[in-house]
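Annex B. Sample input.
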Amino acid sequence: MAAKSEPSQERSRRRRDALLRAAGELLAEGGGKAITHRAVAARAGLSASAATYFFDSIQELTEQALALQVADRVGELKALTRVALREGTSFDEVATLFAGVLTAGSPLRDAIGQYEVYLEAARNPALRGPVAEALDTFRAVTASVLAELGVRDPARAARAFMAVIDGFILHQLANPGHDEENVAALAEALRGMFIAQVMSDDERADWQARLARRRE
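Annex B, continued. Sample output.
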């Protein structure tokens, strides 16, 4: 009996996946208001009832679409990390590689739907739990990279690195172009943050004292 049910289960899985990816596309194009059961089913090339069959509510559909986007992005970041952290790679090379990939066309397009859900969570408290889980997942991946690179407190540093990266991506989304300039600027920002995170206690104290001095 189990063997006979597998084709049907596989078809259901493919249809559900198609609906989630369609929802992600619509989010990127029109934000949360673009997500309706009918619109998502149409984009996926399925009957109007398909979306309501798999998802009881628009919120559930949005949450699951976000989860799929996060899973895809984490997979891409882990693959990039394996390349970036190969033996002998300097942090300067890592920063340039990450900056180039994160500000490229395809990752930017994929990020739009993700950020749309983040913004929707500001208006809809029910989405804040899934968004918090997504951010925690990205922080964990970022922290693992920083730990490999020798950062003193990778979990704490990951928050700052994520904020800078997200800021650069949002600016690139809002004002496309200037790719080489954006890659260079992001790589420089990552290098500066890395230096601050690997300083010894004496080096950090010295710089804190310098920053505390009044301008003359």
